[in-house]
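User: I'm putting together notes for a lab meeting next week and I want to include a structural view of one of the chains we've been expressing. I don't have a solved structure, so I'd like a prediction I can at least talk through. The sequence is below, exactly as it appears in our construct file.
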Amino acid sequence: MLEQLHNFLITTPVSDYRIITILIVCGAVVGFINTIAGMATAISYGLFMMMGLPINVANGTTRVGVLLQFLTTSVIFKKKGYLDMKLGWRVGIPVGCGAIIGALLAAVLQAKIIEIVMAMLLPIMSILLFIDKRKIGAGTSKKVLSQTRANFEQAESNSLSRQTTTSVEQHTKSPDRSIWVTVIFTAIGIYGGFTHSGVGLLIIFSSFFMLGLDMIHSNAIKQFAVTIYTPLALIVFIIYRQVNWPVALIYAIGNIIGGVIGSYASIKGGERFIKIFVTIIIITMSTVLVIKQFNR
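Assistant: Thanks for the context. Below is the predicted structure for the 296-residue chain, given as structure tokens.
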């Protein structure tokens, strides 16, 4: 069945209404899952490779939809009041700088090397899907509340009426922590420039632990940071002619639709199913990439 699907995708022109439908529907699913859980860009790679695109072109082609989707969802999070622009730029700038390096690596490396690296990285990254972000977020909130109370009591006893009790600024103002924030988010940007799949989860978890944010605000930072770094990575792929524009633009329509729905949707019981589904896709694609190396 997979072979028949592959033959259909590789022989049917992009202008065919069936291919257009597949691209939009798949793009919507990926956009929705990326907003709710993450890692779904691996599905994009799988689809584009089945359509006959080399992995480096598949990698560049996904970035168009990613940019338009996250630009849209960033606006939504901003309107809802969850996006702190100052923190957004603080994360987005180092991520963007790192992304240029990662995209250059992905653009100049041989397709075989990229396939091997992705076959190893994506299954490892999928583990992040199963970390309970709500529990971590709740734990972080309790620590923040406890620290704030302690600071308030200390301020009261010392008659320091203007002592700062806001946890985020305390969390990030020290020079040592500031350097680590820059280093870690730059490293995340290098990964994101190389492959988008999973970068959102890295930004979310780093935003909790490095910036002391809760889950909703960390997710808003993710939307903005991806919006900042994606055009920088995309420019690299465009220069190296690794974007299939007809496929990218049609697929982007689905990404935007899925991203908007995901921004407003509330998923409870279905989130676990989504995570398992994405993990199966990732493992399948990684296995195919490994087998492909032995068949050359």
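A couple of points you could mention at the meeting. Confidence is low (pLDDT under 50) at residues 155-167. The longest helix spans residues 55-79.

User: Perfect, that's what I needed.
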